[in-house]
Amino acid sequence: MRHWRPASDHAPTIARDQARSERAAKLRAFMLIAPLLVFLLVVFIGPVATLLGRSVDDQEVAAALPRTVTALSDWQWGTPVPDSAYKALVEDLREASTPASLASAAGRLNYALPGMRSQLMTTRNRLQRADGATSDFKALLESLSPKWSEPESWAAIKQASGPVTDFYLLTALDMKRGPDGSITSLPANLSAFVPSIVTTFTIALTVTILAIAFGFPFAYLMASASDRVAGILMFMVLLPFLTATMVRILAWGILLGREGVIKSGLMALGLSEPLDLLYNRTAVNIALLHIFVPYMVLPLYSVMKTVPQAHLRAAASLGATPLTVFRRVYLPQVAPGLAAGSLLVFIQCLGVFVVPAILGGAREQGLPVLIAHYVNKTLNWGLAAALSVILLVSVYLLYWLFVKLTKSATLSLGAR
Amino acid sequence: MAPIVEFKNISKSYDGQSFVINNLNLDVQHGEFLTLLGPSGSGKTTALMMLAGFEAPTNGEIFVEGRPYSSLPPHKRDIGVVFQSYALFPHMTVGDNIAFPLQVRGHAAQDIGRKVAAALDMVRLPGVASRKPSELSGGQQQRVALARALVYEPKIVLMDEPLGALDRQLREEMQMEIKSIHARVGVTFVYVTHDQGEALTMSDRVAIFRRGVIEQIADPQTLYDRPGNAFVATFIGDSNLLTGRILGRDASRTMLEIPGAGTIAASAGDIGDGNANDAYVAIRPERILVSRSRTEDVGRNELSGTIDKTIFFGDHLKLVIRLEGGQLLQVKTETAQPFQQGQAVSASWSPEDCIAFTSPPANTRDGVVQSLKNTVAA
Ligand SMILES: Nc1ncnc2c1ncn2[C@@H]1O[C@H](COP(=O)(O)OP(=O)(O)OP(=O)(O)O)[C@@H](O)[C@H]1O
Ligand SMILES: [Mg+2]
């Protein structure tokens, strides 16, 4: 060493070395989580982001009628439709060489204003057959389809000009924009989605409450029983998991059905009018409770196991009545398990599709059934995505509430 | 004054076959510090839990201040319990833990605040009221548990091995602390331990438990000097246990022959008028004098042997002497003793310092085996 340095000069070196070693440790840690992170990005975050995008995406009309959209960009509701818009629409429609190139835009406009599909298609077909020698585009269009004289048609195009829209989300909440852009709720007799949302949440809430009512005492028994008894009870809880859900649902269908055991038993006892056990709320609640109650029991059991008997005894010896012991000592300690179980049951109930579809009547068909309908039958991806967003947002709201209420580290992302 | 607690013919069986507590009769006096001491599984915790109301006696009745208590639920008993695991409520702060018994009794809020602060002062932990129990050390948690069990001034405080989880130094510190708190508050303490040192230092009286019965109940000095039987003699403190044959007995003295070594005189322990021949003689290691040659003091017992081992303990020296006839004798002496292994010596002690028993210490020869094992291992 050529230069002697005082000890204090070493300090920056130490700090630098430490920073370097910390960086290396962080890098190693990141490398360890990287594969899972990528996997999550691809299979979870990606699709969810796409879904969110779908619910507000609105580019079909702008793609099919670019000139019209531009011409309408400065138009205000209440003022006459500008002549340039009529001209632009005629040009756009002449440009559309095949009906297929207009189909998706026509479909989108039809959601907003029923009749728009045929209005657009008819106009295009007639326009393609007519000769182009005219300068009064307004008169031309109105002769091809009288609806072009109504400003509502133009408002529909303007509102659908994208690139993003709140149309699907509003529809999912039974609301719509009037031609002037104001948001109004649909009258109750026309509302299509809110009742389904209410149904979904009511069923989920009912089943969660039932699961607590049945699961809590059961988990308590299990936690305080001897190991052997607890093992048997645990097997009973897990037994349903060994059977395919579909089989269980169909079994419920047979059990509760017209010729089912329960029904004929009740009838034989003279207790039952030919009352319907199947295709109603009760059947759905029973089947869902049966399927999801293990998700309540297991987290409850695992926290109940950790509450020492000495705590309950100490509380009693300190003068607390059994009810006070339960309320002030036992319940707060099992609350994270109760919240986790409720959350698991509730969220899973929001997503059930098969049970209401098979065991429920028309009034039990919740959001997932509607979503499936829009995805499979009408190919209305925007609306299906918007309904999914409502489910998703409510789940995250619940989760946030859960973390807030329990401040539990077990399910929140932060460290304790 | 009538005792505050009376166990009257209490028996307890968990399985309907064997008794964990067998016909127990025990009185606890007002304001005393009573310790239940005994080996593992002897029923100490069971006795305590019956008093606290968490277990019901199979037979018999427990009286507290003359009232039958067996069917009274725990929360109506007004008995504080300190558990080995402390049992502090983890979701409450220290202050809330201590306030809990006052709150469930419906005390006024300003009283509660004052009493909680006073209780924390008493256990020398001011200023931790707002912390969570998990933020305290083991010894501090123990103090909080004690404060919680005392703050509502219960009639009796029960403690089940409260210091079991602490290391030695802290344990000794807490023993002093608990003792001084007991002296200050004057509440009746019933304390469970299987650490005999703890029992001797802290208690007014100690009840020696063994297989569900009390072998002896007395103050520490009596237990140490005048054990009632060979089990107590070996369980409390170190004791040599020689086996011998009874030659004759009068009112106070028993003459015994130690095979191969000679005859000795001992004070009579549980030797009645029975005609048993075999006896056990208990002698404390620190009561034995060792010399190079026989003292020929007629007032003392004197046996010859050779030094088998010398072990240095810092403050004292332990000599293991192999007596003629083969039995081993442990002696505690000062460190400045010039004895060497193999040296022939003479061991002597006063007849008052040894007690003869006929009942075996533990199951048959267990105590002998154990005391010999101690000797050999040491
Ligand atoms: N709840 C119970 N159910 C069945 N048997 C029990 C129960 N509690 C204790 N026992 C049995 O009763 C006997 C006495 O137990 P107890 O806990 O009273 O002993 P202890 O003196 O406190 O022992 P330790 O010093 O180990 O704590 C033991 O054999 C034990 O196995
Ligand atoms: Mg015990």
Features:
heterodimer; A: 416 residues; mainly alpha; MetI-like fold; 3 domains; two-stranded antiparallel ribbon; 19 helices; 69% helix; extended; disordered C terminus; B: 378 residues; alpha+beta; Rossmann fold; OB fold (Dihydrolipoamide Acetyltransferase, E2P); 6-stranded mixed sheet; 9 helices; 25% helix; 33% strand; elongated; binds adenosine-5'-triphosphate; binds magnesium ion
Structure in words:
The complex is a heterodimer of chains A (416) and B (378). Chain A has helices at 10-56, 60-64, 66-71, 83-95, 100-112, 116-129, 137-144, 151-159, 167-172, 194-224, 227-238, 245-256, 261-268, 281-304, 309-317, 322-350, 354-359, 367-376, 381-406; strands at 175-177, 183-185. Chain A is mainly alpha-helical. Chain A folds into 3 domains: 17-53, no CATH class; 60-189, no CATH class; 194-415, MetI-like fold. Chain A has a two-stranded antiparallel ribbon. Chain B has 2 domains: 5-225, P-loop containing nucleotide triphosphate hydrolases (Rossmann fold, 3-Layer(aba) Sandwich), CATH 3.40.50.300; 230-377, Nucleic acid-binding proteins (OB fold (Dihydrolipoamide Acetyltransferase, E2P), Beta Barrel), CATH 2.40.50.140. Chain B has helices spanning 44-52, 94-104, 109-122, 138-150, 168-185, 196-202, 220-225, 230-235, 366-377; strands at residues 5-12, 21-28, 33-37, 59-64, 67-68, 79-82, 156-160, 188-193, 205-210, 213-218, 240-249, 253-258, 262-268, 278-283, 289-291, 301-312, 317-323, 328-333, 344-349, 354-357. In chain B, helix 2 packs parallel to helix 4 (138-150) and helix 3 (109-122) packs across helix 4. The model of chain B is unreliable at 363-378 (pLDDT under 50). At the A-B interface, helix 15 and helix 16 of A face strand 6 and helix 2 of B. Bound molecules: adenosine-5'-triphosphate and magnesium ion. Adenosine-5'-triphosphate (ATP) is lined by residues 14, 20, 38, 40-46, 194 of chain B.
Describe the SSE topology.
The complex is a heterodimer of chains A (416) and B (378).
Chain A: H1 10-56, H2 60-64, H3 66-71, H4 83-95, H5 100-112, H6 116-129, H7 137-144, H8 151-159, H9 167-172, E1 175-177, E2 183-185, H10 194-224, H11 227-238, H12 245-256, H13 261-268, H14 281-304, H15 309-317, H16 322-350, H17 354-359, H18 367-376, H19 381-406
Antiparallel strand pairs in A: 1-2
Helix pairs in contact in A: 1-19, 5-6, 10-11, 10-14, 10-16, 14-16, 15-16, 16-19, 18-19
Chain B: E1 5-12, E2 21-28, E3 33-37, H1 44-52, E4 59-64, E5 67-68, E6 79-82, H2 94-104, H3 109-122, H4 138-150, E7 156-160, H5 168-185, E8 188-193, H6 196-202, E9 205-210, E10 213-218, H7 220-225, H8 230-235, E11 240-249, E12 253-258, E13 262-268, E14 278-283, E15 289-291, E16 301-312, E17 317-323, E18 328-333, E19 344-349, E20 354-357, H9 366-377
Parallel strand pairs in B: 3-8, 3-9, 6-7, 7-8, 13-20
Antiparallel strand pairs in B: 1-2, 1-4, 4-5, 9-10, 11-12, 11-14, 12-13, 14-20, 15-19, 16-17, 16-19, 17-18
The structure holds adenosine-5'-triphosphate (ATP) and magnesium ion.
Residues 44-45, 160 of chain B line the site of magnesium ion.
